[in-house]
Amino acid sequence: MTRAFRMLTLIAALLTPTLQPQTHPQAQTSTYEVNDSHFHLTNYIQEGTDIHEFLKMMGTRTGRVALFGIPLQQEWEYRVSGDNAPKYYLDTDSPLYYYSFTDAYIATTYKSLTKEEQARFDPMITGFNPSDMYAADQVRRVLQTFPGVFSGIGEFSIHKEFVTAKIAGQTPSLQDKALDRLLDFAGEVGLVVIIHNDMDTPFATYGSTPVYLQQMQDLIKRHPNTTIIWAHTGLGRVIRPIKNHAATLAAMLGDPAYNNLYFDISWSVVAQYITSSPEATKIAADLLNRYPDRFLFGSDSLAPRDAQQYDSVFFQYGPLWQLLTPEANEQIKKGNYERLFDKARQNVRAWEGANVH
Description:
By secondary structure, this protein is of the alpha/beta class.
């Protein structure tokens, strides 16, 4: 299939109205080993893996996947990089910008699947600017344009090492009214929210007060009716675990003010921190065994080329899986995903039934 033909097919799909919310058969994942709460089908130049090929990569190991693209497009400025087209945000000094078409692409790609195949995916809306007071309205329009498709919003970033500074326009903030309005709307609809927000600044002094921890805690408490998954437990490439990182997470999870908060342990970088030593793995395992209902596995795979690349993070966590109780293994690998996303599907479909005409 040529690129031009694919584009024409996509445009035709976009111009065809879908008036009634769709229903989905519930995916039976008991025979699978894991669900993936954090997966990017496309990359920073909006290229990616064909979803039918990705189903083959999922195989019999991965049951369900939270499906999203990348909300940011890396700009190719000839005067900066010449003929060297950047493929990643670290390849150039040129800016990033919000790419709203990603949601239409994810929706139409998802709708190309059979009903049985669709049941294995929970698409997420990402192509909005969280600093824009109209972000909530944009999410509403996406839901009304593609009823029966989306289950949540994210992964989107507020403070993210190297990325936030490159985004054209206003800097995102945890204290922005636009973000509050967006999370209020997500809570009203029942959308799961996945936020990437670094707990601290790059290369922070170990033991210093994390710059963004209190702001993130305040944000979560302001939206008790919104299900929030804090991606990567607030870590990044150069955002190392803070002093007493596990104890900080435990304090939040033990506080009823954060009953709406969950963490994903997605990304190879996070797996490196957790498996960096037997002691680090044991600390993480003790935390997850204590709060098995509040963590989700995610690959954070970005447009994988094959099953080996896609499965790599799951196997990277081998030492952790060995230290978890059977209950924690089951919930973190599969059960928590099904509980959160099954509820989101039900609530979002009900909202669409009342608001899509």
